[in-house]
Specification:
heterodimer; A: 437 residues; alpha/beta; 2 domains; ten-stranded mixed β-sheet; B: 246 residues; Rossmann fold; six-stranded mixed β-sheet; four-stranded antiparallel β-sheet; 27% strand; globular
Chain lengths: 437, 246
């Protein structure tokens, strides 16, 4: 950690010259974070001791009771424990991490002040390594338990290996001082590997959220990254996904459900650098009350990415007049033999759809809830993991129907309609997932 | 008495569309409303259901003795009015069955027995020759024109209204489907003893049905009232004769 502290100071100095720090125009497209204040609170955090461990166990129990499955690993601000040991996972405290552990690291502290911040403040490192041709499934519960938390997750998926990783980010704060949950992922998806990583942010309204990730997919590898932003007071995310190997594929889903005065500043960059690669980014945001979302999806298509396909699709629903969304899709195409599209649409609830549902008897509030659930169902249906599908559906239900976030919801998927491209599965598909209840 | 429309004047986007319509539909009666394109039939139907684009300038809509002109669409539906849409809206991600369950719970005011609901859906799915996969999709999304119409009739069967307004249930249907839809409507109408107002341009669907009253609309007004003989007159002389005030 000492090693990284200097980088944070250096990166802070460097970032002063960045447009978002300098220009009033750029500032409109970035949400400010009181990093120095958070930095101090992270530095002041001591070992949470037995109280933290007990609190985390209670949280894990509540999670299991409400969502009907147990996390395999629980990671708090300073403590962690396994509910179920896994041969694929190794958790180290920052003082146990050596340069060897971090060899081949994709992120450099100097490239971003926030990355440097997470590097400097990470107390836990989680190494997930799935050897060639192995299959692994892992559920992790993270929490900033009574103290700010910053963690790094470094994932290596071997050739032909498969990983299904589900991560839930929760909070237990004192409700007074602002807290933080910062997470940084680095994912190397090997050749012919097939993986899905689901990150579900449901921190409380007292928590700043930092979510950074960099991924790299090798030849014929497939990687699905699904980001759900439901919790937190102020979320800053930057995710960079590289389809590097020949015929590799990255599918990215971003779902944002904002309420109260939540703020989300999300920057996702998909890059096709290999031949015949596919990158597909689908972002959906529904905003209530005074919530704000800046959705910045960007597609890079490199010179060597002949035959590649790249899609950026951003859609938003504003459920209240005081909600604000700025959708800024972008593209940089350096090869002419590619397919690339981007689209963006933000609007209030469609009046014709609302009237249609109301004319059949559903009241206005129910009609709106159905429409918002439907809006998210397309994204949720893209998730392959049944655990991710059902928990995210429950989260959407909790937020839309009860206006709550930050706690662990009861499993309820009755309002989400899981669609499928397989005609024969369509009719029974919904009820298959209902059985999870 | 189920529905009474009294001297109704309706404007849409500042334009007068319905210009003084009077119509009375008693419980269990089957009425047909015919008219050329732009005569105001759909606007009248939308106004009865409370579409926000329709502004009632004068007159009233009475349903079972209660004025409904200031009620929202869901409240009118709860009283028992059903509108089958000429162009049903495609609603992304809202499952057909989920929607029907929510609508049924809302109109009946009680929790739905899913097994019973699925039984009713399957029954009418067979009668209307709707492919099972269609019901499994999102509401009206990816449905063909005919499938949308059949799905609306299925909704009517399940929601059991007191009065159904069917806005061109025959448009977009092939010859066999027109017959199947007509027979299903007739069966539901008789079984549920509801009032029925069927809006159409063409007489073909009426070959399989027995309406008691036929009305012709032109220029925002009802210009002729009668029985099935009016249909034959229309077939012979066209709408123009009514439009010209013959």
């Amino acid at each position: 950690m000492e090693y990284y502290k200097s980088f944070y100071q250096e990166a802070t100095e460097l970032s002063k010259s960045l447009p978002e720090e300098q220009s009033e125009l750029y500032k409109r497209y970035f949400l400010p974070l009181p990093l120095d204040q958070l930095w101090q609170s992270l530095m002041d955090t001591g070992d949470g001791g037995d109280a933290e461990e007990k609190g985390l166990r209670d949280l894990s129990k509540l999670f299991s009771e409400n969502l009907s499955f147990k996390p395999d690993l629980v990671v708090g601000s300073t403590r962690h424990f396994f509910e179920k040991e896994s041969e694929f996972v190794n958790v180290l405290n920052s003082d146990e991490v050596t340069e060897e552990h971090l060899s081949g690291k994709m992120y450099k502290s100097s490239e971003d002040k926030l990355v440097a911040f997470i590097h400097a403040t990470s107390k836990k490192y989680i190494f997930i390594s799935v050897p060639a041709k192995k299959k692994a499934s892992l559920n992790v519960l993270f929490a900033n338990y009574m103290a700010p938390s910053s963690v790094q997750v470094l994932v290596k998926i071997g050739e032909g290996a498969e990983l299904s990783l589900f991560e839930w980010f929760a909070s237990k704060t004192n409700g007074k001082e602002k807290s933080l949950l910062g997470v940084l992922h680095e994912v190397e998806a090997g050749p012919y590997s097939k993986s899905e990583i689901n990150l579900v942010h449901n921190e409380d309204a007292n928590t700043y959220v930092l979510n950074f990730s960099k991924t790299k997919t090798s030849d014929n590898g497939k990687l699905g990254m699904n980001y759900v932003y439901n919790g937190g007071f102020n979320t800053r995310a930057k995710n960079e996904l590289l389809a590097e190997g020949y015929s590799s594929r990255n599918d990215v889903v971003e779902l944002v459900i904002g309420s109260e005065e939540q703020k989300f500043d999300l920057n996702t960059i998909i890059t096709n650098s290999g031949q015949d690669t596919v990158s597909d980014l689908g972002s959906r945001a529904a905003l209530m009350d005074k919530s704000v979302c800046l959705l910045k999806g960007f597609a890079n298509v490199d010179t060597d990415a002949r035959g590649s396909r790249s899609f950026v699709n951003e859609r938003g629903i504003l459920l209240d007049k005081s909600a604000y969304m700025s959708s800024i899709p972008g593209m940089l195409i350096k090869n002419s033999n590619v397919k690339a599209t981007h689209s963006s649409a933000t609007a209030p609830i469609d009046e014709e759809s609302e009237f249609y549902l109301m004319s059949k008897g559903t009241d206005k509030a129910t009609a709106r809830k159905l429409l918002v659930s439907g809006f998210f169902s397309a994204g949720i249906s893209k998730m392959e993991s049944p655990v991710a599908k059902s928990t995210v559906a429950s989260l959407v239900h909790e937020k839309i129907n009860m206006g709550r976030f930050g706690s662990i919801p009861k499993l309820d998927i009755s309002n989400i309609w899981f669609t499928s491209s397989k005609e024969s599965d369509l009719f029974e598909g919904h009820y298959k997932y209902r059985e999870l209840q | 008495m189920a529905l009474e429309i009294k001297d109704l004047h309706v404007e849409v986007e500042g334009k007068d569309i319905v210009k003084g319509v009077n119509l009375m539909i008693n419980d269990g009666e089957f009425h047909v409303l015919m008219g050329h394109n732009g005569s105001g039939k759909t606007t009248l139907a939308k106004a009865v259901m409370g579409h926000p684009s329709t502004k009632i300038k004068a007159g009233d809509i009475i349903f079972n003795g209660q004025s409904v002109k200031d009620l929202t669409a869901d409240k009118r539906a709860k009283l028992g009015i059903f509108l089958e849409f000429q162009a049903p809206v495609e609603v992304e991600g809202v499952g057909f069955v989920n929607f029907l369950r929510a609508a049924r719970e809302s109109t009946s005011g009680s929790t739905v027995d899913m097994k019973q609901l699925m039984g009713e859906i399957r029954d009418y799915t067979d009668k209307l020759a709707i492919a099972g996969g269609v019901i499994g999709r999102s509401l009206n999304q990816g449905f063909s024109g005919g499938e949308k119409k059949k799905a609306e009739i299925l909704q009517m069967a399940v929601l059991k209204p007191k009065l159904a307004i069917l806005d061109e249930p025959d448009s977009g249907l092939d010859i066999d489907a027109v017959k199947a839809v007509a027979q299903s409507i007739s069966e539901i109408y008789k079984k549920q003893k509801m009032g029925l107002l069927l809006i159409t341009h063409y007489s073909r669907i009426l070959n399989y049905m027995e309406p008691q009253f036929v009305h012709v609309m032109a220029g925002g007004k009802i210009v002729a009232n009668g029985g099935k003989e009016l249909i034959q007159k229309l077939e012979k002389e066209g709408y123009e004769s009514f439009y010209n005030g013959k």
